[in-house]
Amino acid sequence: IARSLTQLLDEYIPIVQGSEMNDDPFHPISRYAKDLIAELGDDTPIAWMHRTERFFEKLATPDVTIADLIGDIDPIKAANLKLSYADERVIHFGMIPRANRCIFVINELPDLQARIQVALFNLLEEGDVQIRGFKVRLPLELQFIFTANPEDYTNRGSIVTPLKDRIGSQILTHYAHEIAIAKKITEQETVKSSERGIKIHVPELAKDLIEQIAFEARKSEYIDQKSGVSARMSITAYENLISTAERRALLNQESSTCIRYSDLMGMIPSIIGKMELVYEGEQEGAAYVAEHLILEATKTLFLQYFPKIEKLKKQDQESPYDDVIDWFSEASSFELANETKEKTHVKSLLSIEPLILLLQRYQPKVATNDVPFLLEFMIWGLVGFEQLSKKKTTTGLAFNDPYDELLRGI
Predict the structure, then answer these.
(1) Are residues 41 and 114 part of one domain?
(2) Looking at the 3D structure of the chain, how many domains does it have?
(3) Beta strand 256-258 with 199-201: parallel, antiparallel or unpaired?
(4) What gap in Å lies between CA 140 and CA 138, rounded to an integer?
């Protein structure tokens, strides 16, 4: 947002050529520009500055000093010019005076030491700059922008209250409220190039699932909501999803592949690294919470594609899913391996006839290359609503009727 503000500036502005502080030829503020204009008058050389050059940015790391931002006396300059330390020409100006007539951004303001924040008071209010006893009146014409997290959950620092009082407007940004917007952000920020030349088809439902996982995380009881869940989670999750599919294609020596639902498990490292767990989440474990979020996202989207699954129903009441559940009960166990070739994987899914009939009934217009993903998504949806059970095997996952398994155990 801050970087895009340069688009609001004039395309070019005139400055006194050679000036450190981008002096306006009609209103010079530096000693250099004033002396040059006094000497040359209307013949003063002018340079033109493009708006893309009028953006200065500084990350507020703990080692930032007042000399970096505002300036200090330069003893080498004093020696070379044979000037006394009492002469203001020995001052070496910092980043802020050099950003005159520009936009100056300080990122992560709470990390800036309190004493340096105090040094910004007069600069924001009066335009006074004090450097080693010099009181240099510099009516700087610049726009300050500060960025910070509203809730700083790590004990790094805080914004000094008087400085906050001098900031004109505070703008609170928010996460995307709609999946469509969230998808655009993820697509915009994701690294798309694949050096391996493998063509990967990503169904729209898979993209929706990634964003829905972030939405579920932002309301999960296992995650500290003050810390939030950033858009970076969706971005890195998408990249890991693509990498998981690429890895499988390389192992199988395939030039193209389609995202599978099981590839979502490859996103777990991305999800774990982007969330702060509360006590309940710590008790369950980060991996469990990540899998729980994936399943919750699946359940949410499942109801947008297929009929609601009733938890309790009458004995003679029929359900659209009865034939599918009966198939799994009769099949005893249905196994999906993670690393199988694309053709083998699709053949396994197409063997579940009741599942295909259910898909054709409720989603008849689905694209052909999206069918395998939707079939797998349906199986996981039934797992989420406890109509089927899943069990990890050495090569992948086995799905079956939970009651059938229970009866066999008696």
Answers:
(1) yes
(2) 3
(3) parallel
(4) 5
